[in-house]
Specification:
By secondary structure, this protein is an alpha/beta fold. The chain contains 17 helices and 19 strands. The longest helix has 25 residues.
Length: 446
């Protein structure tokens, strides 16, 4: 079982804000145990430069809900707090989640104010899981969306996740690699993510290797002797032009010994001008097949800029700005009660109004499959010639289907993404995708 940095059980119900437990205790004390439905959605996007989102994190949420138990250690801690009655704590020892979940499949394109998931369970249970649901799906949806934007900006050039050393903690590093691959990245530098998720791993050397051997050519030859069929030389430790010529010499050694140089990497400087100069050096030496890989501070904006400026770049290592989603480091994902004890409910706070009732999203597409608009409707209604997006994925606390392989989620996303118009994918000021409310859902609100 994977644990967090501190060794804490990732499936502990204590992974919640304190109010999840205080409300749970209040509901229990006053016998408010009826069925409740909560809707999980991203509230608005006016402050974000995002025309769409990519749903992610469902598999982890379902695993969390299935395995949610109060351990003896959890029970002991809650007793120690002195906040909760002995009778309430005693009930927690037998706790398990027994609710139902409707959700979008991971990799589905979605939009603001559309429910990514809806959870129906006895009110204390449904309330307890709020924090975990927002944390898990909010982070992964944020990163999967960032990754999709990078893929779009790269216009077919391969991307590799280099973000591990800058992501905020163990779990974030793992989930960033997973979400990057889900959205189309070619691989990751994260070896543990490669093992756990079956993602291709990529990476060769840092500047310390060149410094340790005292020079470019000496380091390149040493590395080539060790990994003759997997050489991408880092050429900017001292001088990029000198490093490129050293790579040419090492490529000759590889060729003489029956191998071929795969590529060179640039990690600093003016990527446009330097990549062109390096391309000329490689081509003049007959190394047209050697790829130029770049890294250092890339995200969708910089990727688009260097490609537009005519850089001679074949692939990108995408790290810090991607792994922390630097331009939009959070989503305003919320989890709101929409139905309780057979009564539809809604919040009417200014700027934070919610929609009552159990819902469904109906996607309208044209003959080629291109997305035209979405209708947000009631769960039990049907709208002809549309595709419902929310599916039942958990019943009485048990998954209805096995986990979907990451490769299948990736393939599904690629189909989804191809059906979304470019005007909604734009990196700057994307067009707002049309999402309308059905007459039945509107009537329910009124």
């Amino acid at each position: 079982m994977i644990t967090s940095d501190s060794g804490c059980d990732r499936f502990s119900p204590l992974f919640t804000d304190l109010y999840g437990l205080t409300m749970m205790a209040t509901y229990d004390h006053h016998h408010q145990n009826h069925m409740a439905t909560f809707s999980l959605f991203i509230r608005g996007l006016d402050s974000l430069n995002r025309g769409y989102f990519v749903s992610a994190g469902l598999d982890d949420c379902l695993a969390h809900l299935e395995k949610l138990r109060f351990s003896p250690r959890d029970i002991a801690y809650l007793k120690q707090l002195g906040r909760f009655s002995p009778s309430f704590i005693e009930k927690l020892a037998a706790f398990r989640f027994t609710g139902d979940v409707w959700a979008m499949p991971e990799g589905t394109i979605c939009f603001a104010d559309e429910p990514i998931a809806e959870i129906s369970a006895p009110l204390p249970q449904a309330q307890l899981i709020e924090t975990a649901m927002i944390n898990i799906m909010g982070f992964q949806t944020m990163i999967a969306t960032k990754a999709a934007r990078c893929i779009y900006a790269a216009a077919g050039k391969p991307l590799v996740d280099f973000s591990l050393r800058r992501t905020q903690g163990f779990d974030a590093g793992m989930k960033v690699a997973r979400c990057a691959f889900l959205a189309g990245f070619a691989g990751t530098s994260n070896v543990l993510a490669g093992q756990q998720y079956g993602i291709p791993v990529s990476g060769t050397m840092a500047h310390s290797l060149i410094l340790a051997f005292g020079g470019d050519e000496e380091a390149f030859i040493a590395y080539a002797r060790t990994f003759p069929d997997d050489c991408i030389f880092l050429i900017d430790t001292f001088d990029i032009i000198a490093g490129a010529h050293a790579a040419v010499q090492a490529a000759k050694w590889l060729s003489e010994n029956g191998h071929r140089l795969k590529g060179v990497r640039i990690d600093s400087g003016d990527m446009v001008e330097e990549s062109r100069m390096v391309r000329n050096i490689l081509d003049s030496a007959g190394l047209q097949s050697v790829q130029i890989v770049v890294s250092s501070g890339f995200d969708e904006y910089l990727i688009a800029d260097v490609i537009h400026s005519g850089a001679a770049i074949d692939a990108f290592g995408v790290g810090t700005r991607f792994g922390v989603s630097s331009d939009a480091p959070y989503l305003d994902m919320v989890y709101k009660l929409t139905r309780y004890n057979n009564r539809n409910v809604r919040k009417t706070s200014p700027g934070k109004i919610t929609l009552a009732g159990e819902k469904q999203i109906f996607r309208h597409v044209d003959a080629s499959g291109k997305f035209n608009m979405d209708t947000l409707g009631a769960r039990d209604e049907a709208i002809s010639e549309t595709r419902p997006l929310l599916e039942p994925v958990m019943k009485k606390g048990r998954r209805l289907k096995p986990s979907v392989p990451l490769s299948a989620i990736r393939e599904g996303f690629q189909v989804e993404f191809s059906h979304l118009g470019d005007e909604y994918k734009a990196l700057y000021e994307p067009k707002r995708y049309p999402v309308e409310m059905s007459p039945e859902l509107l009537k329910l609100q009124n």
